[in-house]
Structure formats: structure tokens, C-alpha cells
Amino acid sequence: MTTTKKIRWGILSTANIGMAKVTPAIQKSAHSEVVAIASRDLGKAQAAAAELGIPKAYGSYEELFADPDIDAIYNPLPNHLHVPMTVAAARAGKHVLCEKPIALNAQDAEALRQIPSGIIVLEAFMIRFHPQWLRARDIVASGELGDVRAINAVFSYFNNDPANVRNQADIGGGGIMDIGCYPITAARFIFGAEPKRVVSLVERDPTFGTDRLASVLADFGNGRQLSFICSTQAAAHQRVQLLGTRAKLEITIPFNAPADEFTAITIDSSGNLDGSLARREILPAVDQYTEQAEAFALAVLGEQPLPWGVDDAIASMRVLDAVVASEKSGGWASV
Q1: CATH number of the domain at 131-285+317-334, please?
Q2: Less crowded by CB within 10 Å, the N or C end of the chain?
């Protein structure tokens, strides 16, 4: 029987993703409780603690790491602070759930190998815990689609705010790092493999210097391909399609699935191009951030291991590095 114990979380910063989505989701996890939040501005930490009903607030990250009553840290800081703050937390004996991408590049991510033995570090790709993705992977494994040859994805939104961290190139901004990492993770999840090489076409914002539109093709070998478009300055849109030799599967809202609504995938072997004969499967309404927190908590409690850790996060960064290298060279880049 699953334990009734809970792990105690500390939240690193008052970043919007944490305040609006992840921290409330952690609070809903059956094996989690959020006991503290830290900011470099104590007033912000206190206000955030009051808003979310968190008992303790700290005016520095170091105080949070030193709190003996905390088991795990959630790190939603800007990309350039992911590795140093995760390593600092781990050295203080805390397990870490760190936002994606885990680092600025694979070399940066290699520092995560310094973490002490027994400390769990997970890159926060919450989609891997959502029932729609688990069901899609099961359908692929069943052979219903035949051999999956291609995965096609689109992920876009519009944000031209110069103060937003996603538009600051020097700290890891841009669409490839922010959202391009999702199709890459999705394809690695579905194929159960790593790409061998990638090629990219990238257009950059003339003011920010960040990539605002990128098209990427990844070769997974054995006739398997991922193609995706990501943009930070286009109409909001997201879709994922899996194309097999016998059927196709589509995930309607693949990345930002609403926490309180059913989700749907369609499987179509009819050959009818308008999709009217597709089978539609409805998946339960779940908060994928809560599912992620629950899986993480159970791993910390020793109830069930996580399939992913530091090695997986570094492998993901190698693919992102290759996307950037291809942009610079104008040709294929090995992963």
C-alpha cells in the first residue's frame, strides 16, 4: 500500500509559472506539502506565501536550502540559474524538480553530475505524466498505428514584451529553449530513442536577438523523423500528429492541457482525409503538474522510481545544442 507520508517542498522564487500553476498543483498532490517559499526580496516572498497559504517565507535562496524541514525544492528560476541553484540545493541535501530546459547547453548541464548520491533531480517536462501522452505511447506500442514514421508538431504563442525572460537572449531566452524543447521531448518519449542528427531554419528577432521562429527536422534513424515549428511571435497554436504506416494519431492540446477539462486524442485508420471517421478517445481531466509532483514525491519517498533523471536531461540538452549548431552551420548537426 502506498505510504501516507508526505514530502515537504520549498519553492525557489515567486516566478509566475510557480505561482500560477506549479505550486498550487504541488499543493494538490496527496504526498506533498509546500512549507516555504523564497525570494531575493523578502516582501515578495511574504506576499506570495500569504497568497498561496504557505507557512514560511525567506528573503534568500540560501535560507531556503538551509531549512532542515524541507525535503525538496522546486526551481522555476530563469534558465541561466537552473544549474547553479539546482546544484546548490542538491548539495544542501534537497531533491530538486527543475523547470525545463534544465540548462543553457549540455556542457552547462554536465555540472549536474556533481550532485550527491541519493539526490533526485528531475527536469519538469510535465507532459510525460499526462494520461493523454501515456495513452498515445501505449497505442504506439500496441502496433495499431503500424510503424510510426513521423511526428509533426507545432507550438506557438505571441510575446514581444522586452522585459519577459523569454525575450532575453543572454539568459537563455527564445522559442527553441522555451517551447522547442517540448516536441523534442515528446518525440524522444514516443520513439523511445535519441535523434542522430538535426537541421534547423531559424529567424531571429532583430531587437531581442532571440529565435522567434524555428523549423526543425530531427532524424531518429530507422526511417523515423520529427518535424516541428515553434514560434514566440505567432498566433497561439499547438498540435502533435503521429503518422504510422497504418493509422495516424493526433493529440489536440498536447502541451498546455487544461487541468480541469477532459482532453482528447484521435486515431484514424479510415483514410478519410477530413477526419470524420476517426475514433476519438476522451481522457480524464487531470492537472499534469500535480501528476508530476505526485510521481516526484513517491520517488523521494522510495515508493516508485522515476524513469528520468540527470542523464535524460543532459541528453535533451544535446539535442537543443545540435539545433543551435545547425542554425550556425546551415547544415545538419550531429547530436
Answers
A1: 3.30.360.10
A2: N
